[in-house]
Description:
- This protein is α/β, with parallel strands linked by helices.
- It has a single domain (4-193), classed as Rossmann fold, CATH 3.40.50.300.
- The chain is built from ten helices and seven strands.
- Strand 3 and strand 4 (53-56) form a beta hairpin.
- The termini are far apart.
- The mean pLDDT is 96.
Amino acid sequence: MGKVIVFTGTPGTGKTSLCNYIVKRNKDWVHLDLGSFAVSVNAIIGYDRIMKSSIINMRALKKALRNYVLNMPDDSNLLIDGHYAAEVSPANCVDCCIVLRCRPDILWKRLIKIRGYEEKKARINIESELTDYCYLTAKRYLRNVRIVQFDTSNTSIVKLYRRFMKCYENDFKCEGDDVDWISYFSKHPEKFSRLFH
Length: 197
Ligand SMILES: Nc1ncnc2c1ncn2[C@@H]1O[C@H](COP(=O)(O)OP(=O)(O)OP(=O)(O)O)[C@@H](O)[C@H]1O
Ligand SMILES: [Mg+2]
């Protein structure tokens, strides 16, 4: 039976980069980007002009995703990639949830400089990262699933890939990172003062 692995995390933490890297090196694995999947199953119901992103019918997406997972070939592993992946994935089929994290000052640079986000949108995402939004959502929706956090702040995709494969080979019994950005900033206030610049 193939494994179902959820990749969640604030936009810009590197979910798609890591999943792409994994499927390039593991031929029969499947990468499901929820953004494109939502389009393909007609689960887009509008456009949020402030966030400049699609509004998704979560119930429809959840139903389509459950069907997709239940009809997967037995021998392929599935990587479900999206910042709302924990919310819509069928919890009883999920083997592990990886939450990618990124130090907010570093994530800010990725969102503004690399992704070209407007400050308002970047700020909302930084607030989510600061308050562990994706991690807490994963804990809430995937109650009996192993949840492992990877801090991507100062590490490469290759290193993250090796770390993930080790975790996978060990049946997901692996050590995650303890992330606490508020404590980090209280120890490094100079970093906090540069956060939104
Ligand atoms: N470990 C990393 N170190 C440095 N830069 C990274 C790392 N991972 C990803 N990036 C860069 O950050 C940007 C965002 O990565 P990516 O698109 O994979 O994020 P995402 O989590 O899939 O975001 P979204 O939720 O918006 O789809 C990319 O330009 C990528 O090159
Ligand atoms: Mg992505």
